[in-house]
Amino acid sequence: MSVQDFIKELRGEQTQQQFAFDLGVVRETVSKYENGRSKVPADISRRIVDKFDDPRFAMTIQQEYTGTGPIWLNGENVDLHRCSVKEKTIEELQEALKAIHTINLATPFHAVNHFNLSKLEEVLEEAVEAITALQHFVAITCAESGLSYRKVWTDHYNDLEEGGFAKRG
């Protein structure tokens, strides 16, 4: 699903005018977001995340605007029931940990041969699969339990800052 599709979905039964008022923009701007003529800027994206607390939208914004991060899984083979997501997350974490244990990072990267570089790429692919699984685990669990996805991340950022691991500003 694209950002423009999510804007339409999140607006729901509201008119573009009502939705625009809630976001602090004019109706024409909402129309441009919905038809893809304008990208949703960062400040409006944050307002939408704050207002709707929808992890699918947050993930879609990150992926569409940066080209990085997990995409929302919506293919024919995905099972997003919370129990399935939990089990898949455990499986992906175990596979990633196993792969990470196999790689030697003591060698400087400029001295790594082609075989070991290929092995490193495989390890990173396992890590990315685990990140995708974890992101869905957090999103599905928050959505179904009624816990705030936004608050989970805000609390995490605060913990990192308090622990001296990150500075926000």
Describe the structure.
The protein has 169 residues and is mainly alpha-helical. It has two domains: 3-66, 434 Repressor (Amino-terminal Domain), CATH 1.10.260.40; 82-162. It has eight helices and no strands. It has helices at 3-11, 16-23, 27-35, 42-52, 55-66, 82-102, 114-145, 149-162. The longest helix has 32 residues, at 114-145. The model has no long low-confidence stretch (mean pLDDT 94).
Helix share, percent: 55-70%
End-to-end distance, in Å? Answer: 31 Å
Largest sheet: none
Oligomer: single chain
The Rg value, from CA coordinates, equals: 19 Å
Give the percentage of residues in beta strands: under 5%
- What is the overall shape? elongated
Number of strands: 0
Number of helices: 8
**Structural domains: how many:** 2
Mean pLDDT: 94
Broad structural category: mainly alpha
Provide the succession of SSEs. Answer: HHHHHHHH
As residue ranges, the low-confidence spans are none
